[in-house]
Amino acid sequence: MNNFELINPTKILFGKGQIENLTKEIPENAKILMLYGGGSIKKNGIYNQVKKALSNFEVVEFGGIPANPEYEILLDALKVIKSENITFLLAVGGGSVIDGTKFLSAAALYKGDSPWDILANNVRTLKGMPFGTVLTLPATGSEMNSGSVITREETKEKLAMGGPGLFPVFSILDPQVVHSIPKRQLANGVTDAYTHVLEQYMTYPIGALLQDRFAESILQTLIEVAPAIIKDPSDYKAAANFMWSCTMALNGLIQKGVPNDWAVHAMGHELTALFGIDHARTLAIIAPNHYTYNFESKKEKLAQYAERVWNVTEGTTEEKAKAGIEKTRDFFQSLDIKTKLSEYTDEYEGTAEIISKRFTERGWLGLGEYQKLTPADVEKIVGMSY
Questions:
Q1: CATH of domain 11-176
Q2: Is the separation of the CB atoms in 107 and 79 below 8 Å?
Q3: How far apart are CA 205 and CA 307, in angstroms?
């Protein structure tokens, strides 16, 4: 196992009725900017619960943050932060709203020329404006980590940012919110969390026995609860396990002491930027082909995964590894997630070359756990995904 440091300062309030405890977690004299998305929180009752809990605070609202948090819209929110002298941010939404809030947390205190530099130059944020979250859509794990991904429509870019100053002060996780989530978004959430685990697990053996089993347990839990939560989102037991699995998939725990990949995300982000495909679905497009292309370096973990997670006990290491890839693709498809780029757009020809060129221009010359995947490799993997 590799050396590691683990710090996660985010306080979690998990369970029924936790939204009413908001008032206890925010500084007494805070002036709050409440951020949310397209307005679904006003239909499912979450908005009213939050407003009631914040009745003793001065609250300014900013709605309309889209599914892929858009840079120009966030700049409008940044103007509100500065003009209204906001001191605390509250994200009420899923990963996109929380990611957008993290960008604003960084940008509010940024002293550089342009907030875009935080993304373009991968500026590590050591201190941001404090913020909390009320999670409404389990998927990204953004409620308990310090990472964020922002889209810029003008340039068709989707870039990551982060730093120790971008952990939420607290996050409220009430599984009851899941009952109003559409099936498409539930399937996305399962796929997103599942792939987050794979990015931290599907590399090569390093003797991190507990870390492997942490990862495998999250995968097994998602496989078990996926049919139940999609069939009946009001199933509290399934919703609770689904929500906590999504958080645990990317709160920093399972990535410590082990190699990480994240090339699937790097490629998937480009598909979202170019075609507007849901983030989770881009991961399902890329992941099986990424594992196939890098089969020799990943086959030991693929075989372990197939055996422990999918109970594939027959065959050689290579045969089990191949079965692991197929089981992964089948699982995504069982959620009604399409796994080919051509199933989302007719304009897929040339995509591999565009993404390869972008990676070359950014100097991204070594992706994956070995930092050896070149833009030429990326071109082949994306091409396999058509």
A1: 3.40.50.1970
A2: no
A3: 14
Q: What is the mean pLDDT of residues 44-65?
A: 95
Tokens 């943050």 identify what position? Answer: 65
CATH number among 1.25.40.850, 1.10.10.60, 1.20.1090.10, 1.10.230.10, domain 182-384: 1.20.1090.10
287 within 8 A of 225, measured Cβ to Cβ: no
Q: How far apart are CA 224 and CA 309, in angstroms?
A: 11
pLDDT 10s digits, 189-245? 999 999 999 999 999 999 999 999 999 999 999 999 999 999 999 999 999 999 999
Percent of the chain with pLDDT over 70: 100
**Treating both helix axes as pointing N-terminal to C-terminal, what angle do 71-83 and 95-109 enclose, rounded to 10 degrees?**
50
Residue 284 to residues 21, 23, 25, 43, 333, Cα–Cα distance (Å): 37, 39, 37, 30, 9
Which amino acid is it at 349? E
Tell me the three state secondary structure of residue 374: coil
**C-alpha–C-alpha distance, residues 256 and 385, integer Å:** 30
Distance CA 299, CA 291 (A): 8
CB-based contacts of 255, cutoff 8 Å, min separation 6 = 200
- Beta strands 170-173 and 131-135 are parallel
C-alpha to C-alpha distance for 261 and 159, rounded to whole angstroms: 17
- Type and span of the H or E element at 375: helix 375-384
Q: How many whole angstroms separate alpha carbon 325 and alpha carbon 318? A: 11
Residue 46 burial by Cβ neighbours in a 10 Å radius (0-12, 13-18, 19+): buried
Kind and range of the H or E element at 172?
strand 170-173
Every domain range in the chain assigned CATH 3.40.50.1970: 11-176
pLDDT in tens, 128-162: 999 999 999 999 999 999 999 999 999 999 999 99
How much is the pLDDT for 294? 98
What is the spatial distance between Cα 195 and Cα 218, in angstroms, rounded to a whole number?
11
pLDDT of 249 higher than 90: yes
Amino acid occupying residue 39: G
Q: Which of the four pLDDT bands, split at 50, 70 and 90, describes residue 365?
A: confident
